[in-house]
TrEMBL record:
<dbReference type="InterPro" id="IPR036969">
    <property type="entry name" value="Citrate_synthase_sf"/>
</dbReference>
<dbReference type="InterPro" id="IPR019810">
    <property type="entry name" value="Citrate_synthase_AS"/>
</dbReference>
<keyword id="KW-0816">Tricarboxylic acid cycle</keyword>
<comment type="pathway">
    <text>Carbohydrate metabolism; tricarboxylic acid cycle; isocitrate from oxaloacetate: step 1/2.</text>
</comment>
<dbReference type="InterPro" id="IPR002020">
    <property type="entry name" value="Citrate_synthase"/>
</dbReference>
<dbReference type="Pfam" id="PF00285">
    <property type="entry name" value="Citrate_synt"/>
</dbReference>
<comment type="similarity">
    <text>Belongs to the citrate synthase family.</text>
</comment>
<dbReference type="InterPro" id="IPR024176">
    <property type="entry name" value="Citrate_synthase_bac-typ"/>
</dbReference>
<dbReference type="InterPro" id="IPR016143">
    <property type="entry name" value="Citrate_synth-like_sm_a-sub"/>
</dbReference>
<dbReference type="InterPro" id="IPR010953">
    <property type="entry name" value="Citrate_synthase_typ-I"/>
</dbReference>
<dbReference type="InterPro" id="IPR016142">
    <property type="entry name" value="Citrate_synth-like_lrg_a-sub"/>
</dbReference>
<keyword id="KW-0808">Transferase</keyword>
<protein>
    <recommendedName>
        <fullName>Citrate synthase</fullName>
    </recommendedName>
</protein>
Amino acid sequence: LRQIKADAEDFGLMTHDPGFNNTSSCRSSITYIDGDAGILRYRGYPIEQLADSSSYLETAYLILNGELPTKPQLDAWVHEITHRTMVHENIKKLMDGFHFDAHPMGMLISTLSAMSTFYPQAKNIKDPAMRRLQIARLIAKVPTISAYAYRKRMGLPYVYPDNSLSYTGNFLKMMFQRADPYIPDPIMEKALDVLFVLHADHEQNCGTNAMRSVGSSNVDPYSAMAGAAAALYGPLHGGANEQVLRMLQEIGSASNVADYIRRVKNREVLLMGFGHRVYKNYDPRAAIVKQLAYDVFEVVGRNPMIDIALELEKIALEDDYFVSRKLYPNVDFYTGIIYQAMKFPVDMFPVLFAIPRTVGWLAQWDEMHNDKETSIARPRQIYTGYDARDFVPVEKRG
Ligand code: ACO
């Protein structure tokens, strides 16, 4: 574009695209989405097949490396992750310093950025082996930090990782172990693993865009991931699952749904968990999560919130307001109901999104640093302020 500038004062051609609706920020071979058809694939594999037949750590390997692992590769990868789960003892002291009612997502974001000070060699981002080491560390340690954040919030002692358990089994134990030995329920362990597969990556969403944008300054991955996690925390992004449950609690019963829909149509409130920047069809992840809810209910009993959610979906999908705007349930619509049934407190919901998204952020960050096209993210603007004017001393200002 610089080559078509008429003179030095000419901007050349510049697009104005707030929210990047029509802007591609990178080339990526990780995740494919067709929002109109409701298709999501990681490295070419449909999300439905991965949710059905893969595991989170296997999917993480696929996302990072581009191919499914052989059995020895998978074993080595699982061993590496499950033997990097411990965090430095001073992380516990850092956790202790938070206010008693600190939000776990705030604690996670802060701890991620603090971790850059524990691994100063991570700033060597030009070294692919060094990048891979930090990626393994982060995938292994984020569940530990997340569980610590929960235990701090609850005033409970921290539980050390148990490397004999699966990725999700260990996380459940670090979260929920009390005085007795804790054996994770295999259905819960599997359900959480499927939810983690579904959340592993989603191309250039707000959090991933933040990861690439912050990372494009060549900062270390811990600092970049703190930025990505902060973006995810917002109620329009990963914070939506928390907002969905608060909305269902506010509605209270299926008989109040019609009135809530009326308020949505009056633009007083949003229908949280509905709508998506890319999907203009049913989010394929939402369909899997909805089914998964019933597996979890078989173990823990039916969550009454599901009836309100089903009624909301039924009314919305028949209403022209939602149909004409192509507003369908997104992944967050049913996940909160499952997390609540699993006994996760509501403010842990965005954390449960951040844990599996760790691999997506890091794979995209790694891909960016392997891409010769990458340059620092630095958009332009359309200036709407004053022309040049002279400074007025304070005593002369009216
Ligand atoms: N409830 C009511 N109306 C909605 C909703 C909603 N959840 N989402 C969009 N709309 C309406 C808008 O008001 C707009 O209507 P208009 O054209 O009459 O003004 C129209 O649908 C188009 O909406 P946009 O805001 O242009 O859609 P956009 O793609 O920018 O926003 C977003 C997507 C942010 C996800 C939005 O749908 C939303 O706020 N949803 C609720 C929050 C949510 O569930 N977020 C999770 C997203 S998934 C994820 O992050 C994992």
